[in-house]
Every structure is written in C-alpha cells, then in structure tokens.
Amino acid sequence: MSPLSFAPVLPWWLLAAAALGVVVSAILLARPPAHRRAVLLRSLAALLLIAAAFRPGWPGGDARAATAELDVFFVVDSSTSMAAEDYGDAVPRLDGVRSDIAAIARELAGAKFALLTFDGTSAVRMPLTQDANALAAAVEVLQPQPAVYSQGSSVTAAGPLLAERLQAAGEQHPGRPAVVFYLGDGENTSAKPGAPDLGIDRAMVAGGAVLGYGTAEGGRMKDVGGDGSYLLENADGGRRDALSRIDETQLRRIADGLGVPYVHRSAGDAIAPALAKAAPGTLSASEEDATGRTELYWILALLAFGFALPGPVRHFGELRRLRGPGKGGSA
Fold first, then answer.
1. Rounded Cα distance, 280 and 64, in Å
2. With respect to CATH, is domain 65-278 assigned 3.40.50.410?
3. Comma-separated ranges of CATH 3.40.50.410 domains in the chain
4. What is the mean pLDDT of residues 71-77?
5. ∠ CA 120-178-207 to the nearest 5 degrees?
6. Residue 288 — very low, low, confident or very high, per pLDDT cuts 50/70/90?
C-alpha cells in the first residue's frame, strides 16, 4: 500500500496545539460523572475535525501533480469598456474573459487560484484557494463597472495590490512558483497618467500571460448598471454610439513588465496555445507525472459528524418534551 501523506490546511504545530487544548479541556470538563459522556463525544468530534484538517491521503486519483504546487493570479479588467461587444459575434469582452479563466482553471487543476479585479481602483475578489468551484462562482458574477460610477480606468491600477499578494504568497510558501494572467483590453481612460506597467519585480513571476480582448475597430457598450441601452458620446454636434478599442501597445508594455508573452484572444480560440507560450513545461502536466492524490479527510469529517450528532438530537427531544404539555390547553 502507498505511504500515507499529509497536506495540512494550517501549520501542523497550530493543529497539534488545538488538539492538546481539546484533550486538556475534556479532562477538566469531564470531572462530574454526569457530564462525561457528552464531553467525550464532543471532544472526539473536535479531535476528528482537527485530524481531518491534516488532510491525510495517499498517491493516486486524477489531480495533476505538476500544478499542485502552483499559485495562479488572475488580474481582470472590470472597467466599463469590458462590456464592449466585439468578442466574437457581438459578445461582450468579459464573456471571453470568463471562458478563458474557466479553461485555464481546468488545465491547471490542483493549483491555487486568486482573482483580482480593477477599474479605477483594484480589489481582491477571491484570495488564493484550491476551491475551483469558488473561482467559478466569483468569475460568474463579474460585471463591468456601471457607467454612472465610472471616473476613468487605469490599466495598471492593480499593480500595487498584485505586488502585495505576490509577496504575501511568497512569504507563506517560499519557493512556490506564482504565475500571473492579466486579462483586459488595455484601454486607459483615467484622466491621471498611469504607470507604464504594473511595476512588478519579474523575479516574483514564474510565468503567465497578458490576454487581450477587443478589436481595433471597437465595439459598442451597453450600460449594464442602467437601462441596458448603448452608451453614447458627443460627436460632430450630435450623439453617436461610444466605441471602445483595444490598445495592444499598452497590453504588450504590461506583458514586457511582467516578463510574460502577450496573446490576443478571439472567440473560439483554444487556450492550449496561450498556455504553451505562458511557461513551457511549467503550466502543463504530462500524463506520466500526473499521479495525483486521494483525499481521506472526508472520512474523518463524517465520523466527527456522527459523534457530534447525539447532542443536537438530545436537545431537540428535550425541546419537544417541554412543548408537549402546552399543546392540549384547557377545556
């Protein structure tokens, strides 16, 4: 049988201290004999949960070993211009972003993912996690900034926040490679001159790519935060549809600053070529090396639930018994 291994969700010493605390508390609380059974069951449930947090398992399964030790940062342009309908057949650019993030997450299954967005400012939508479902949910609800709130967007606004997140990840897991995927249209509408690139130390980035969306001809934008009509601009004494155009020069400048390639994305493009350019041999796992890992924590969590269940069941029975006499009332 393959040797058992552990991948604790917290430092092992912290989990060990928690287990010791449970044992000491059980000894102190179980001194009155009447309390011993309840204290024992609760303590066993707590210890099993702590054991589950050590994430025991053994080699096997379908996870990709080459990406299991990888931090992936998605930096997404969520400005109003990402509503421009020039991705495929009048499809908003942000739809292409959603599709590409989902495809990258599938290819890099087992990695940790983080989602950062920016328009005029930047924000962490999801910190690093291996929960692919959480990433899918966070991406699904992404919407372009409503035009009424837009005060111009800076394509490099996410730089300081990304640097902070990369540094924190490096300190927490030294030597763990981090890759960055920047997804946007490169259109800078901020009145203030922005930085030429994200200002990230290349040594902090092991790979990734800048993915560009949109066309030189431009696309119309619906006001997603208003009545859904197309945005207009003043022109030649009248009003016409406002158009957003991709700025590939700016996107290439951002890519150069990160030390990663620039790849233009169109509807129907496979993600494999973009990943191949992102970091050959690093972001794709061969079937030979993809040994994976079979998780066993769920068994311990299920046992913990079983030991914790008698308490709530007993309290529910007592509650029903206390309510019983009051139901009949007086004749």
1. 16
2. yes
3. 65-278
4. 96
5. 90
6. very low
